Amino acid sequence: MAVAFLLYVIAEIAAIWAVGSAVGILGTLGLLLGGAFLGSWLARREGGKAMRAFVESARLGRPSEKELTDGMLVGLGGVLILVPGFVSDVLGLLLILPPSRAVARRLWLKRMEKRAVRFANQRRGPVMVVDSEVVPPQEPRGDRPQPTVIEGRVIEG
Fold it and tell me: pLDDT by residue (tens digit) across 2-28?
C-alpha cells in the first residue's frame, strides 16, 4: 500500500510539473482551481441523482445495491477531485461520470463478493449454499412415520 501511495505522489508531481512547463504557474493554478470547482459541481449534481435513485428504490422496496454503490463512488470521486492534482482529478472525474462509474461499480461489486466469500471461509470454514425446499411429511404408511424431506441442490460458494 505504501508503494502505491508513493507511485501516486510521484505521478501527481510529474503531472503538475508537465502541465506547469506547458502553461506556466498561473495557468496550472487556474486549471487546478477550475477543475476543483467544476468537479465539485458535477459531484453535487451526480450525488443528488444517486440519492434520489436510492430513495426511489427504497420506497419501491427494490434492492438498492446499485444506487448505494453509485452514491459511494460519486462521493469518492468528489473527494478525489478536491484533492489537489491532475491525476486525482482524472480519477475522480472517471468515478463521477455515469458510463465509467458503471464499470467501476461492476468491478467493485465483484471484488466485494469475492472478499465476502473469502471472509466467511476464514471465519466459519467453507461456505455452502443450499438451494432447497422443505416438503411437509405425508401421512404415515404402515407402522413407520414419514420423515421430513428436503429437496434441493448444493451450490459451492
Answer: 899 999 999 999 999 999 999 999 999
